[in-house]
Design a protein that fits this description.
The protein is α+β, with helices and mostly antiparallel strands and 200 residues long. The chain has a single domain (2-199), classed as Maf protein. Helix content is 32%, strand content 25%. It has five helices and eight strands. Strands 1, 2, 3, 4, 5, 6, 7 and 8 form an eight-stranded mixed β-sheet that branches. Helix 1 (10-20) packs across helix 5 (180-199). The longest helix is centred in the last third of the chain and has 20 residues, at 180-199.
Length: 200
């Protein structure tokens, strides 16, 4: 089986590749195609965005495609930035722009009210009309400062209590065991195995 990762984000590709290793599947990325599209996230929910990205890349490549959409939901901000997490500080911004805005928005919020969760929806488009989704969740706290040089996105400000670490302090393997995306991709992995078994 060939499976295309429906993203141009190299950081996501690294995490997803690691989570899917040892499967009898050839993982393909944007590097394997000319004029690989960058689907616009026009959905109102994470699931809608994951589905539209997976469907568009499936249609473009003619191969099964896996996409994810992830949001950080901060309780003190009524669930924001949520579906707009990647563009919280505006269009074409850096990871730092987004988490620095979050730190500013959270100024003065006490520790017990800094609860948040990462939510990730993974969609696999086996064909444009055959799409499955799964979800992963990771609960944590938003910190007041920036620590760690691993990971990406909001990882430097997301503290994960069970391991007493921020995501930015974890290796890819460690993060994939506990993170929202890691959990969602593990569930997607089970879907892939089930599909492979069925097609034998």
């Amino acid at each position: 089986m060939q499976l295309v990762l429906a993203t141009n984000n190299k950081d996501k590709i690294k995490e997803i590749r690691q989570a899917l290793e040892e499967l009898p599947v050839t993982i393909m990325t944007s590097d394997d195609f000319l004029d690989f599209p960058d689907p616009h996230e026009t959905g109102a929910t994470l699931a809608e965005n994951a589905i539209l990205k997976a469907r568009e890349i499936c249609e473009f490549t003619g191969l099964p495609a896996l996409a994810d959409d992830t949001g950080l939901e901060v309780d003190a901000l009524n669930g924001a930035p949520g579906v707009y997490s990647s563009r919280y500080a505006g269009e074409d911004v850096t990871y730092r722009d987004n988490y620095e805005k979050l730190i500013r928005e959270m100024r003065g919020v006490p520790r017990e009210k800094r609860t948040a969760r990462f939510r990730c929806v993974v969609a696999i488009a086996w064909s444009p009309d055959d799409i499955q989704t799964v979800e992963g969740l990771a609960e944590g706290l938003i910190t007041k400062d920036i620590v760690g040089d691993k990971g990406f996105g909001y990882d430097p400000v997301f503290y994960y209590p069970p391991l007493n670490k921020r995501f930015s302090e974890m290796t890819v393997e460690e993060k994939n065991r506990v993170s929202h995306r890691g959990k969602a991709v593990q569930a997607a992995r089970e879907m892939i195995i089930a599909r492979l078994t069925r097609e034998r």
